[in-house]
Design a protein that fits this description.
- This protein is mainly alpha-helical.
- It has two domains: about 80 residues; about 50 residues, no CATH class.
- It is built from seven helices and four strands.
- A two-stranded antiparallel ribbon has the order 1-2. A two-stranded antiparallel ribbon has the order 3-4.
- α1 packs antiparallel against α2, α1 packs parallel to α3 and α2 packs antiparallel against α3.
- The chain is globular, with a radius of gyration of 20 Å.
């Protein structure tokens, strides 16, 4: 198996494994990463480290580097699509057959309430916040990255 073929196969398998894992685990998080991203990265890295060991033993680190970069690229690309209102607007315009839409109808679909609810759902999915007696609060503990960040922000704010 040639090196170029193995690299192309690595990219294709990474993309399809990401697609498959997203269909199973959806947008669940192990904060700050989506589980689908992590599963795809580990599976693909394992597969291609084994294949590179068999066909190109001197290129093992090369394939590790490729998979780390694929993880980085896809993680941030998907993040950009999910979190950027501008990107969402571009995608929505492209998906419309007429290529245009009414701003009034768009505001009914995407407004502050919808955006805040999406963010709250993501924070709950990643187990960063909790709902108690109709109030949201940050979960305390060493496993909660946002709690640690909030402590840093509070410290900076006091300075």
């Amino acid at each position: 198996m040639t090196l170029n073929y193995l690299i192309i196969l690595n990219l294709i398998v990474y993309f399809f494994s990401l697609k498959i894992f997203f269909s199973f685990v959806k947008m669940k998080y192990y904060f700050p990463f989506r589980l689908a991203d992590l599963f795809s990265f580990f599976l693909n890295t394992l597969i291609f480290l084994i294949l590179s060991y068999k066909y190109h033993p001197d290129k093992i680190l090369f394939f590790l580097f490729i998979n780390i970069n694929l993880f980085y690229i896809f993680f941030h690309l998907i993040n950009m699509i999910i979190t950027s209102p501008r990107t969402r607007l571009i995608i929505d315009l492209k998906e419309r057959k007429s290529g245009s839409f009414s701003l009034k109808k768009y505001f009914e679909k995407y407004n502050c309430k919808v955006m805040v609810n999406n963010r709250i759902r993501r924070l709950q999915t990643s187990d960063q916040i909790e709902l108690k007696n109709k109030y949201y609060s940050l979960k305390k503990g060493k496993n909660n990255f946002l709690y640690f960040i909030s402590l840093i922000f509070l410290l900076i704010q006091k300075i």
